């Protein structure tokens, strides 16, 4: 019997924070896609996500429509410990998804946070989901923030938020079988 056919590595799946119920809520009229100016200089936003299998993260993504200043992105555990980050990096071209290469980081199944901080709140504009109506505060969806957090700190101090948006940020992964 011959060898099994060889296949190229598939495109890695993308983790985009937010539960299926959040996305369903968004798509049923409680939210809209838009652009937002980063709300405060050096503010970090932490978006929850969970993984069910051992997973290696290799890249982080954000989507900006106007660039200004620096950004930092990273992954934190549920206790606020930074597991990996890009480090403060000058924002690049706009109107494109920006891909940040990180040290490959393998995580066990569990709950984590994808974090992003930006140095300016005047001209840096990002694509985001904005929730509308009653209960539109993202704190109810597990989102946190931290002031004065650029570059992203080794340990986050999670604070509740009154934001009504969730930035379009994501992570690319490989699943370990």
Notes on the protein architecture:
This protein is mostly beta strands. The protein has a single domain, classed as Jelly Rolls, CATH 2.60.120. It contains 1 helix and 13 strands; from the N terminus they run βαββββββββββββ. The strands form 2 sheets. Strands 1, 2, 4, 8, 10, 12 and 13 form a 7-stranded antiparallel sheet that branches. Strands 3, 5, 6, 7, 9 and 11 form a 6-stranded antiparallel sheet that branches. The relative contact order is 0.31. Residues 1-12 and 19-29 have low confidence and may be disordered.
Features:
single chain, 177 residues, mainly beta, Jelly Rolls, 7-stranded antiparallel beta sheet, 1 helix, 13 strands
Task: Describe the structure concisely.
The chain has 177 residues and is mainly beta. The chain has 1 helix and 13 strands; from the N terminus they run βαββββββββββββ.
Q: Number of DSSP strands?
A: 13
Indicate the mean pLDDT. 81
Task: State the helicity in percent bands.
Answer: under 10%
Distance from N terminus to C terminus (CA atoms, Å) equals: 25 Å
What is the CATH third-level topology name? Jelly Rolls
The chain-level structural class is: mainly beta
């Amino acid at each position: 019997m011959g060898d099994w056919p060889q296949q190229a590595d598939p495109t890695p799946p993308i983790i985009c924070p937010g539960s299926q119920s959040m996305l369903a809520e968004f798509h049923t009229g409680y939210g809209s896609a838009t652009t937002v100016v980063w709300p405060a200089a050096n503010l970090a936003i932490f978006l929850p996500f969970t993984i069910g299998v051992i997973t290696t993260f290799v890249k982080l993504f954000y989507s900006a429509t106007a660039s200004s200043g620096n950004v930092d992105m990273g992954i934190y555990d549920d206790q606020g410990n930074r597991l990996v980050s890009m480090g403060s990096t000058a924002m690049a071209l706009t109107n494109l998804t920006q891909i940040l290469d990180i040290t490959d980081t393998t995580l066990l199944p569990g709950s984590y946070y994808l974090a992003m901080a930006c140095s300016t709140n005047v001209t840096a504009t990002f694509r985001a989901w904005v929730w509308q109506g009653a209960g539109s505060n993202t704190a109810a969806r597990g989102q946190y923030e931290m002031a004065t957090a650029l570059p992203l700190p080794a340990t986050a101090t999670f604070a509740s938020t009154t934001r009504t948006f969730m930035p379009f940020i994501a992570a690319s992964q490989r699943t370990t079988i």
